[in-house]
Design goal:
The complex is a heterodimer of chains A (277) and B (363).
Chain A: H1 3-34, H2 54-62, H3 65-96, H4 102-112, H5 117-130, H6 137-162, H7 165-173, H8 178-207, H9 210-214, H10 224-229, H11 241-274
Chain B: E1 4-13, E2 16-26, E3 31-35, H1 42-50, E4 57-62, E5 65-66, H2 72-75, E6 77-80, H3 92-102, H4 107-120, H5 136-148, E7 154-158, H6 166-183, E8 186-190, H7 194-200, E9 203-208, E10 211-216, H8 218-223, H9 228-233, E11 240-250, E12 253-257, E13 263-266, E14 278-283, E15 289-290, E16 296-306, E17 310-316, E18 322-328, E19 338-342, E20 349-351
Classes of the chains: A mainly alpha (277), B alpha+beta (363).
């Protein structure tokens, strides 16, 4: 190996190390902190001295944290299901049926996602109160849809446009209705896009904070991000960092697992679809 | 099996009309080929018959019933697409069974029909494969199989062979011809390849910018083209068109002056022509050859293409036009040689100034 090649290899791996440390260190430090308590939290250490899970037990003991996790799961799964259903059906209409004002409609959908969350907060609050959904999970699901629908519709529309028109026509000649075309022909071809958008929608709903804080009142209806933010210590002046870190680690793990499972499939699906079948 | 009748069919996309009133009747069990240059509307016409585009005006009858508003399925048609359009996530079996399944056919019937079609098309060993594991020719066969199992009244083919290589194309052409004679089905076939048109068709429909130029049997179009467009489109290499002036015309023949001083009495019915009319004299390359006499055009060989079984001479005539001459074998000719091209009077076509042909008296 000549020196130049060696230098290039070293540079490459150095860059990899920097990126990995940058991405993983905060999470690693959260795990470390979650195992410590009291004044030990404020000393900087890089390696765990002992494994102490008392913070994890405390998180569940001191508030209805299991209930909060269940709420988050219900909200995130419902948001993904509703977004994908509406996204696919809207994508068929926007990507396949030509009608007047289609471009304007698409731009409007994209424009919705440009508003900052705070801007729609008060309007959304009134809407949810009027619908009688205040302090309930359906209210949160409805509110989260405004965050996830624009990009699901947009991405799925783009993807559906790329599917060959002859496939749809062949299915029509075979006697398929538009619904059957979507369900039996397009959906199986679109699943890489469905997995990607579904995962993004899940993460968005899972981490959503502002709506969840505003539209809920009782601890039993809160989702995880709000519950974590509202964890209090023994006195007003103490922030229980150990508990907060333990709770954060608990709710981050499912996301990491989901991404790891689906990422392999996303890559596999994309490459399989790349060669024209 | 059924006949298809088009009555003054029109199609407009927005304000632009692309099919201008097509009248056509396709008989039961007939193999009809639509040919024309790209953009002539042949595919659009097929898609109108299929029901993939709405008919703007006119009536479409299949088997005696008006089907303008019916869905493709209810018209009893099956279509084979240029890009095959196989469902990529389904096996060959599932691809062929899809339409039957949607029609709620019983499992046993589906199975026997799919296996029957697979046997005809020699696809039986491939039934469990996915389309991406098949070659181009096999995919095309699956697409045809998908059409067969539905037992349609009319088969529609949209340039089915244009994605295949030359050798495979010849083979599939023969298979389609065999399929037609075996099944006795009405077939409508769109192509831009005139060899496919000539070999497959019972009847050729030549289309040009949304109009039917001529309908007829392949050899009828070859020997008796109705106008300049059909004459130029059918036949390869293209027919030669020579600008000429009528010297005398009657029902028994037309005498025209040739470039370079000669003249010829073309054996066509020239009742409508008068002396001094400007006409185009059409002669196919295969009918020209070196010769002498009055009915000749002198020229200079500019270029020779040797094809093996014949060779093509490109001859520059005195009016600066190019004549294509086809002669058999490898005749000893060289470029820059001068030649006298003889025109046989019975092989002549004469086209009036508006492009319409005078009826030929010779067969």
């Amino acid at each position: 190996m000549n020196p130049l090649k060696l230098l290039k290899a070293i540079g490459f791996w150095l860059l990899v190390v920097v990126i990995v440390v940058y991405a993983v260190f905060p999470f690693y430090y959260a795990i470390l902190s979650s195992m410590r308590s009291g004044s030990a939290l404020f000393q900087v250490v890089l390696l765990p001295e002992h494994f102490d899970f008392s913070n994890y037990i405390a998180v569940f003991a001191e508030q209805p944290f299991a209930r909060n996790i269940l709420n988050s799961v219900i909200v995130a799964v419902s948001v993904v299901a509703v977004s994908l259903f509406l996204g696919v059906t809207a994508a068929y209409a926007l990507g396949r049926v030509s009608f007047r004002g289609r471009g304007a409609l698409l731009l409007m959908i994209l424009a919705v996602s440009m508003f900052p969350q705070v801007a729609v907060l008060s309007g959304m609050f009134e809407l949810i109160r009027r619908l009688g959904l205040y302090n309930s999970l359906p209210g949160l699901i409805l509110a989260n849809l405004i965050l996830t629908l624009p990009f699901t519709v947009w991405v799925l529309t783009t993807f559906m446009r790329e599917l060959p028109k002859e496939l749809e026509e062949a299915a029509f000649v075979d006697g398929a209705s538009p619904w059957i075309v979507v369900r039996r022909v397009f959906l199986p071809l679109m699943w890489p896009a469905l997995v990607t958008t579904g995962l993004l929608a899940f993460i968005a709903a899972w981490n959503e904070f502002l709506f969840a804080l505003t539209f809920t009142l009782s601890n039993e209806q809160r989702t995880v991000p709000v519950a974590i933010a509202l964890i209090t210590g023994a006195s007003q002046h103490e922030l229980p960092w150990g508990n907060i870190m333990a709770a954060s680690v608990i709710v981050t793990l499912p996301l990491v697992v989901l991404v790891l499972i689906f990422q392999r499939k996303i890559v596999a699906g994309l490459t399989a679809g790349a060669v024209k079948g | 099996m059924a006949e298809v009748i088009l009555k003054d069919i029109r199609k407009a996309f927005g304000r632009i009309e692309t099919i201008h009133g097509v009248n056509l009747s396709i008989l039961n069990k007939e193999f009809v080929v639509f040919v024309g240059p790209s953009g002539c509307g042949k595919s659009t016409l097929l898609r109108l018959i299929a029901g993939l585009e709405d008919i703007s005006a006119g009536d479409l009858l299949i088997d005696g019933t008006r089907v303008n508003e019916k869905t493709p399925k209810d018209r009893g048609i099956a279509m084979v697409f240029q890009s095959y359009a196989l469902y990529p996530h389904m096996t060959v079996y599932e691809n062929m069974a899809f339409g039957l399944e949607l029609a709620k056919t019983s499992k046993e019937t589906v199975d026997s029909k799919v296996r029957g079609a697979a046997k005809i098309l020699e696809l039986t060993p491939l039934l469990d494969r996915l389309p991406k594991q098949l070659s181009g020719g096999q995919r095309q066969r699956v697409a045809i199989g998908r059409a067969i199992v539905r037992e349609p009244k009319v088969f529609l083919f949209d340039e089915p062979l244009s994605n295949l290589d030359a050798a495979l194309r010849v083979q599939m052409r023969i298979e389609i011809a065999k399929l037609h004679s075996d099944m006795g089905a009405t077939m409508v076939y769109v192509t831009h390849d005139q060899v496919e048109a000539m070999t497959l068709a019972d009847k050729i429909v030549v289309l040009n910018s949304g109009n039917v130029e001529q309908v007829g049997a392949p050899l009828e179009l070859y020997h008796h083209p109705k106008n300049l467009f059909v004459a130029g489109f059918i036949g390869s290499p293209q027919m030669n068109f020579i600008d000429a002036e009528v010297l005398a015309a009657d029902a028994g023949g037309v005498k025209v002056a040739l470039p370079g001083g000669g003249s010829i009495v073309a054996k066509v019915a020239g009742g409508a022509l008068h002396a001094k009319d400007k006409v185009k004299l059409g002669v196919r390359p295969e009918h020209l050859g070196p010769g002498s006499g009055e009915a000749t055009i002198p020229g200079n060989i500019e270029f020779v293409e040797e094809l093996g079984e014949s060779h093509l001479l490109y001859v520059r005539t005195p009016d600066k036009k190019m004549l294509t001459v086809r002669a058999s074998g490898d005749a000893p000719v060289e470029t820059s040689q001068s030649i006298s091209v003889a025109i046989p009077p019975e092989a002549c076509h004469v086209f009036a100034a508006d492009g319409s042909a005078c009826r030929r008296l010779a067969a």
